[in-house]
Amino acid sequence: MKQTVLTRYRVMAYITAVWLLVFTGAIILKYGFETGDTMVISQIHGVLFIVYVIFAFDLGSKAKWPFGKLLWVLAAGCIPVASFFVEPKISREARALISDGNKVPAGA
């Protein structure tokens, strides 16, 4: 697995998490205080989330995650602030796989 796969996932995890917080704030303003509109924010977040899902699937397939773990990572992208806690854990695990893959086999 290459470092770029992890980097793409990390960038999209943070961008999607921030937009989910913005979207959540817009929903609170719209329905709680009857101000503002959420159409543009929801569409931007939707597109970003689709890109996040693609990159998470890419990372998961290259890291050979079980399906349950992939669902856990995708669910974190749907819960405000969850990505800020899940992403560092996933990054640590993926970095270990990247560093193991870069080692020269014994006897080579």
Overall residue-averaged pLDDT value: 89
Low-confidence stretches: 104-108
Number of helices: 4
Spatial separation of the terminal alpha carbons: 20 Å
Biggest beta sheet summary: none
Broad shape: elongated
Strand tally: 0
Classify the helix fraction into a percent range: over 70%
- C-alpha Rg, in Å? 17 Å
Structural class: mainly alpha
Percent strand equals under 5%
Order of helix and strand elements from N to C terminus: HHHH
Question: Mind explaining what this structure looks like?
Answer:
Helices cover 81% and strands 0% of the residues. The chain is an all-alpha fold and 108 residues long. The radius of gyration is 17 Å and the shape is elongated. It contains 4 helices and no strands. 19% of the residues are buried. The C terminus is likely disordered.
Summarize the structure.
The protein is mainly alpha-helical and about 110 residues long. The protein contains four helices and no strands. It is about 80% helix and about 0% strand.
